[in-house]
Input
Amino acid sequence: MMIVAEKLTKKFGDFTAVDAIDLSIEKGKIVGLLGPNGAGKSTTISMISTLYKPTSGRLFFEGNDIIKSPKWIKPHLGYVPQELALYDSLSGYENLKYFGGLYGLSGTALKKRVDEVSRVIGIDERLKDRVSEYSGGMKRRINIGVALLHEPKLIIMDEPTVGIDPQSRNHILETVKSLGEQGITVIYTSHYMEEVEAICQDVWIMDHGKMIANGTQEALIEQAGIHTAIRMKFDSQIKDRLDPLRKLNHAMAVDLISDDELVVLVNGGGNTHKEVIKSVMELNYDLTSFDITRPNLEQVFLKLTGRGLRD
Amino acid sequence: MLLKLYKKDMAVLLSDKKGLFIFILMPIVLTTILSFALSGNFGEPGVMSPIEVAIVKSYDKEAESNAYLDMVSPYMGEGLASLKASLNTELDFEGLFFNTFLENEEVKAMISTEVMSEDEALQALEEKSVKAIIELPKGFIKDQLINYTLPNRNEMTIRIVRHPDYGYSGDIVESIINSYFETLNKQIVNKNTYLSVGSGYLDQATLMASLSEIMSSEAVSSSEKVTRTLVPGKRLIDSPTYYSIAMMGMFILYSAGYMGRELLREKRLLTLDRASVAGISYIKVLAGKFLMTITLCVIQMSLLILYAKFALGVEWLNPLKILVGIFFSAVAVSGVGVFVSALTLTSENYRVANIFENLLIHLFALFGGSYIPLDVLPKIFMTLKYFALNGIVIDLFLNTYQDADWRKLGLYYLSLVGISVFFSILTVLMIKRKEVFTYEGTH
Ligand SMILES: Nc1ncnc2c1ncn2[C@@H]1O[C@H](COP(=O)(O)OP(=O)(O)OP(=O)(O)O)[C@@H](O)[C@H]1O
Ligand SMILES: [Mg+2]
Output
């Protein structure tokens, strides 16, 4: 395990922002930390980054107690804060050079890394411009690039895609994926579940300072007992012909919505929903259209808390 | 590492055009304006306390009166008796000066005089218990008698000995004395009325009018010349000299103010978090900013000194002493700067830095002598100035301008370093206390 937290707690005065969470992060994985606003994601991340000292609990990086000696994690950690943390009157190049320098890089080694990183984040052309002249997406990319210079083993990103264009977002997601492919461990915080679904292998879900669930996406969906929903529309009345549908394999439930419209809930992951559709076709019902809703983390969260991720 | 932090801070500073304008151009502009606008302006007489002046009588009334009588008696015949009598009335020039002029309420509001021997007076000036000496020369009585009663004129020179620390007081004394003789002189030119001397000329308007006239024209055609001399070995401090030093003292405080915002600014920018994640302690960050502030001050002060030299004609004698003075002043400013910075950071808002910039700097400027020379204010201000950093810096540079010896300057250097060390220690203690709640500095 790369990171292990035991009963990790952070209080701000009387307010408990992170409440005795247990967490373990496997080396080489892209791990999503999901939760609504104020869930305690940033606070958790700040403790792992040694910015906040935990109120209680234990925290280890590769087996070393980093509450006692933060120095164990520092050289190996790349931290991307939730807000832009850049000198915007300086150029992207100057920012990269300065922050790389803080990790002891210098001379040609530093130059080489700045070149590499700027290619990875895709702003090598405008590197000499002031950051204040960059678009939101470019700023976000530099913000990430700054954390990559010293080739960290662990990269922590706190909502790195807030408020940017789809193109930059995709670029960032691709970057994260390729970091994962290089064997770098990534903790990715977001309240965009689509992003987490797209790139994360493991997911931890927080709410009100507590860790309420974790596992692979499939396991979470399975645990929460959420189904694929297929909405079907027929050419004629359907209400008298429901029984054969109810008897289909994998069909958990059939709910009539109107005279010619219904929803079939399908259990199991994988391709079971396709089998159901095939079977309906084989029944020779006059199916005119259908619409599949795959289970997602949003629904998992809804199921666990009774609230949406983004209200 | 320190060098990297420093280089970054300098780059950020140099990218702040508005800041640079305030730090570097404003003092230059203000120095120029003030040195021209205030060169002949001494403030409102009403708000000043009277300037202490020593008067040295180098004449001998008795002997000079007799010499005059001997000189004129061959021509006087019967009138001699009445002339003799009038030596104690209309022609009593000593009485006129001491009783009528110096005792005049308005003059008394401006200068308070005491008669001393020359040695006493010089010592009093050295000790600054008086701010100037008026020396009434040998022949003061005889020459005036001749000038007022005979067609021939004898040149007479009144010396004003002044102390460079009291340049403005010296100017005021000089103008008052000048206006006295100027008025007397007009009376002579008018011929008919030396008898009425002493009644009409002392109203404030006339005094002030002739005062400014004298300031503006060198060529006063009077037979009584007032000359200014300084305490031996001292140089005159004119207004460009004074204001370039005064503005320097004031504007380096803005560097401390800039520094004062830095730490919280970086905290809010989260760049401080980044540095801290990388293992850079707050103390190191502050050390980098300390060096940046020193550099900023050195640039500010050097440019102003050079500007004063080349544009305003101020002659700085000893470049080495100037440089050393600049360096120690910058060190002191940086110490104050990190302190304001730490206070601002621990209070988590800019109030402290704002109070420093918008209130304290102006109070310091006032009490430290950046706005008006303190010698025109009550004496207590001369002491108060040592509580304002700019006051010490101004004093240091006035002394440096006088080419004071290293020992005297050394005391200033020492107190500037003392200020810096004192505030730096407070800063470190404060930051360490904050670190109890975070990780900062534990690595
Ligand atoms: N320094 C602090 N002092 C006091 N309260 C804080 C502090 N930092 C965070 N909190 C509180 O702790 C709670 C958790 O905050 P945190 O920033 O960790 O949430 P988050 O999950 O990152 O939310 P978001 O998605 O909005 O970034 C919030 O209620 C927040 O107001
Ligand atoms: Mg957050």
